[in-house]
Amino acid sequence: MNVILLGAPGAGKGTQGELLAERHGLRRISTGDLLREAVRNGTRLGLEAKRYMDAGELVPDDIILGLAREVLGASKENSAGEGGFLLDGFPRTRAQAEGLDRLLAELGLRLDAVIVIDVPNEILIKRLSGRRTCTRCGAVFNIYFDPPRTPGTCSVCGGPLEQRSDDEPDTIRRRLEVYQAQTEPLVQYYVDSGAVVRRIDGDRPVRDVFEDLTKALES
Ligand code: AMP
User: Fold this and answer.
1) Phi and psi for 5 in degrees, rounded to 5?
2) Average pLDDT of the chain?
3) pLDDT tens-place string over residues 181-208
4) What is the pLDDT of residue 129?
5) Which end of the chain is more exposed for a tag (fewer CB within 10 A), N or C?
6) What is the 3-state secondary structure (H, E, C) of 52-114?
7) Residues within a 6 A CB radius of ligand 1
8) What is the DSSP letter of 12?
């Protein structure tokens, strides 16, 4: 099964994507995670991407499509037809969606579903501005909705918590604008292309959203 997960920053794509990937044996491909890894490793890709990410802007389509080609091509070779993939945070523009269509055709893969997680803007802002990540084990907390036992310290491993550099208020506002302008129109793009598109209310507890997502994928 090959699936695209669409949703604004903070809608829960990462959390739900990991749960879904585990439940359905899918390979989760998050361009945001791949870019952050490149930034941490100081690669050329990372250096190029960082200035866009810190400003809340999208990394240029040609860079993202190059990255997608690398990971999807490798994914196809490694998994030889089983499992499938779950795309989280890609595509984000019409050019990326068209590039993905071409890439899938080349690789002989097809898209089975597009799932959209909807969350109101005011909740997204709280989720993003309150997000804190453990620098040691990667556990994620939220100072409003799911605070750590001790502020600034991971309740899982005791490591220090940090705020993602693109979770600052101005950057958050910009990321949400960019989503509305460039990514939200992809829902219609996929409806028009005849794909199976399902919308899920993401403003609920993680478990309830996950149940709906699983039902949507199994139907
Ligand atoms: P995310 O973790 O998915 O919210 O991505 C964090 C940042 O990485 C975004 O704000 C963009 O700057 C960049 N990024 C991730 N995926 C893409 C993509 N498909 N196209 C362009 N930029 C991306």
Assistant:
1) -105, 115
2) 93
3) 999 999 999 999 999 999 999 999 999 9
4) 95
5) C
6) HHHHCCCCCHHHHHHHHHHHHHHHHHHHCCCCCEEEECCCCCHHHHHHHHHHHHHHCCCCCEE
7) 9, 31-32, 35, 52-53, 56-59, 64, 89-90, 92, 96, 166, 175
8) S
